[in-house]
Amino acid sequence: MEMFAFALSVTGPIFLTLIIGYGLARQGLLREGFVDDASRLVFMITLPVLLFINIFTADAELGQELPLLAAGFLGTIITIPLAWVVARPLARGDRSAFIQGAFRGNLGIIGLAWAANAYGSSGLAQAALLMAVVTIIYNLAAVALFAVYSQQASFSWKKLAKDIAQNPLIVAIVLALICKQLGVKLPEILLQTGDYLASITLPLALLCIGASLDFSLLRRSSLAAFGAVGFKLLIVPAVLLAFGWLFRLPSQSMGVLLLLAASPSATVSFIMARALGGNSQLAANIVALSTLLSIVTASLGLALLEVFL
């Protein structure tokens, strides 16, 4: 019971903040224009600052996290084609929504928030590094999906490289690693300012995600939506944890790996489904359903991990 209480203390506050955002939006206190502007502020400014500060000031070195990064990399490489295979029986228009929802997690907000709640700044720094590796794989998978399923748009490798190079989150992580490796000393006033900006990131982002949710979609959830959510919340964490066990990761690294793997489907999967001409309604159902159920699966998974490790 004590282990489950710890797990719930990690996921519970995140879920309640999402619900508060959802309620404020329903009451008209968080309007669509504000949510759009705040989400852009988080993505472009405050989240990159948060990632930079936590990696730059972390005690751990990149070399120490290579087993964690390798487990995340290999596990993600396995789960993406596996999701593709599982989606084969579905109608062609449903496959892109299923695949995106089944492997692409909300790492940048939910995953980071869970890691920070569970393990503090050291867990957040580990999660940031892992997120960078997995995000690049997500982008490569998006190119493959566009090549197979889109009849109205296409990506080039040149555009992909440009998008990755201009991604503020990846830029912040790489810049922090370079500065840390070179032994750069930043003035205390800059670090303190960064802390101020970083401190608003997760609460603001969670409120925005909550405001964007539409739980009425759950009434129209199909077997395909439940299948994608089951894959995302059960199969993906199991595969990544298997690699973590093979690499003999310590308990905190295993916890971080679990929390990022068990994060709900990313809202960008809905955008991708629309761009691919796929079933955007199915994609929206997957996002809403996985957000709701991930609180249960992540809490149970973390509690079991604490018991056995």
Automatic annotation (TrEMBL):
Compartments, as annotated in UniProt: Cell membrane
Membrane-related topology note: Multi-pass membrane protein
Predominant localisation class: membrane
Protein name: Transporter
Keywords: Cell membrane, Membrane, Transmembrane, Transmembrane helix, Transport
GO biological-process terms attached to the record: transmembrane transport
Similarity annotation: Belongs to the auxin efflux carrier (TC 2.A.69) family.
Highest taxon in the source lineage: Bacteria
TM helices/strands, residue ranges: 6-25, 37-56, 68-86, 98-116, 128-148, 168-184, 196-216, 223-247, 253-273, 282-305
Example of a GO cellular component annotation carried by this entry: plasma membrane
